[in-house]
C-alpha cells in the first residue's frame, strides 16, 4: 500500500480496519470465554524504592473441529480446544506514576480434545472451561514467580536510563 497518498485520517481508518480484520476469528475456529483470573498485585522493594507490580492475565480459548466425517459411518471428528494464557505486567511507583508496561513472553497453552464436532459439544466445552480455572490460576502463579529476575532487570534498566 502506498501510504504517501493517504491522509492521516484515511491511514488511521485503514489501520483500524486491518486490525479489526486480523483480530476477528476465522470461520474455522470459534473463541470461547474463560473466567479470567483476577489481577495479581504485589508490593516490591528494590534498591530502597517501593513498587507496585500488577499482573493482568489474558485468557483466550480457540476451538476447532478436526478430522473427517465419512458419511453414514461413525464420525472421526473431534473438537480441539486450546486455551492460551498471556500476562501483561505493569510496574508503578506507590504514588501511581511512572508505569512500565510489558507483556510477558511466556505464553502458556492448555490443550483439550473432545469427541465429536465443537458445535455438538458446547455444554461439555463450557464445563471444561470451568474445570480449567484452577489450572489457569496455577499457570498464572507460576509465570509470575518465574518473572521476578526479568522484572528486577527491567527496573534496573529503566532507572539506569533515567539517571543518565
Report on the architecture of this protein.
The chain has 164 residues and is α+β, with helices and mostly antiparallel strands. It is built from three helices and six strands; from the N terminus they run H-E-E-E-E-E-E-H-H. It has helices spanning 8-23, 122-146, 148-163, and strands at 30-32, 40-46, 49-66, 78-92, 100-103, 108-115. Strands 1, 2, 3, 4, 5 and 6 form a six-stranded antiparallel β-sheet that branches. Strand 2 and strand 3 (49-66) form a beta hairpin. The longest helix is centred in the C-terminal third of the chain and has 25 residues, at 122-146. The radius of gyration is 22 Å and the shape is elongated. Mean pLDDT is 76; it is low at 1-35.
Helix and strand arrangement:
Blueprint: H1 8-23, E1 30-32, E2 40-46, E3 49-66, E4 78-92, E5 100-103, E6 108-115, H2 122-146, H3 148-163
Antiparallel strand pairs: 1-3, 2-3, 3-4, 4-5, 4-6
Amino acid at each position: 500500500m502506498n501510504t504517501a497518498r493517504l491522509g492521516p485520517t484515511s491511514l488511521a481508518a485503514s489501520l483500524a480496519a486491518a486490525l479489526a480484520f486480523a483480530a476477528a476469528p476465522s470461520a474455522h475456529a470459534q473463541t470461547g470465554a474463560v473466567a479470567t483470573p483476577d489481577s495479581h498485585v504485589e508490593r516490591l522493594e528494590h534498591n530502597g524504592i517501593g513498587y507496585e507490580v500488577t499482573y493482568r492475565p489474558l485468557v483466550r480459548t480457540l476451538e476447532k473441529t478436526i478430522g473427517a466425517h465419512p458419511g453414514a459411518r461413525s464420525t472421526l471428528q473431534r473438537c480441539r480446544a486450546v486455551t492460551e494464557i498471556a500476562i501483561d505486567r505493569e510496574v508503578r511507583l506507590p504514588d501511581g506514576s511512572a508505569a512500565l508496561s510489558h507483556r510477558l513472553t511466556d505464553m502458556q497453552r492448555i490443550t483439550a480434545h473432545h469427541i465429536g464436532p465443537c458445535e455438538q459439544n458446547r455444554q461439555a466445552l463450557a464445563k471444561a472451561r470451568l474445570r480449567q480455572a484452577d489450572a489457569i490460576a496455577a499457570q498464572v502463579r507460576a509465570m509470575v514467580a518465574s518473572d521476578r529476575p526479568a522484572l528486577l532487570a527491567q527496573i534496573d534498566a529503566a532507572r539506569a536510563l533515567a539517571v543518565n
